[in-house]
Design goal:
The chain has one domain (43-223). Helices cover 32% and strands 24% of the residues. It is built from 6 helices and 11 strands.
């Protein structure tokens, strides 16, 4: 008698469990960073813009798009692309990764509603500087890139009262705005709200990013 015959049912059961796990796994959208510790596992060898985490020194303002409509509203938008936020200081990078992780289920719900292969997530804050009440419309926050205008497909509020779309003086309301993943951050990017175009020169941001990327590689090589 074949001495492995008694193990065949176990092999079949193990194979069945493995296939079932693969079939039920929920896919992570392409531009949503994977869980901490797994980010860039495949990207590191495929995309030259991937760099190791924990060696950046940039501030969030260094990679932000800013615009100031005439009604006393100020807007700051930060792209939560893993290849860019890894250039931030470790504390800032960790804070944004934790923020994304805390909203993972809502973001996966956005994917299910919109049926996109990938999307671009932006951390957008609205700030009022004038007295009285200032209204804002996040649906009108438009990103222009590669000859196209991108409007938010969906949003995940981060602060209480965001859905009221109004601010008191010096109040901040924030949300994750979700755009089509075809936005190319390696190309010129502008933001627009209420016909006011962002004051940020994205070409200067890209130069800053490239300088920091080279420095991060150098710091990481020295650490090794």
């Amino acid at each position: 008698m074949n001495r492995y015959a008694g193990l065949r049912p176990l092999f079949v059961l193990a194979a069945f469990v493995g296939l079932a796990a693969c079939a039920t796994a929920t896919p992570i959208p392409a531009q949503v960073p994977p869980p901490a510790g797994q980010a860039g596992v495949s990207g590191d060898t495929l995309d030259p813009n991937w760099i190791p985490a924990g060696f950046g020194t940039l501030r969030q303002d260094d990679i932000a798009l800013k615009t100031s409509p005439a009604n006393g509203l100020q807007v700051r938008a930060i792209p939560l692309d893993e290849r860019i936020i890894r250039l931030l200081s470790p504390d800032s990078y960790r804070a944004l990764r934790d923020l994304l992780a805390s909203k993972e289920q809502q973001l996966l719900g956005v994917k299910e509603r919109n049926r996109l292969p990938a999307y671009s997530i932006w951390y957008v804050s609205f700030f009022a500087i004038e007295q009285g009440e200032t209204r804002f419309s996040p649906q009108e926050f438009i990103i222009s890139n590669t000859g196209r205008d991108f409007r938010p497909l969906d949003m995940v509020p981060l602060t209480p009262g965001f859905g009221e779309y109004r601010l008191k003086q010096r109040e901040v309301q924030s949300a994750l705005l979700v755009f089509d993943g075809q936005i190319d951050l390696n190309q010129p990017v502008t933001a627009q709200l209420e016909s006011t175009v962002s004051v940020t020169d994205w070409n200067s941001v890209l130069q800053r990013i490239e300088r920091e990327r080279a420095l991060v590689r150098s710091r990481a090589a020295g650490k090794r």
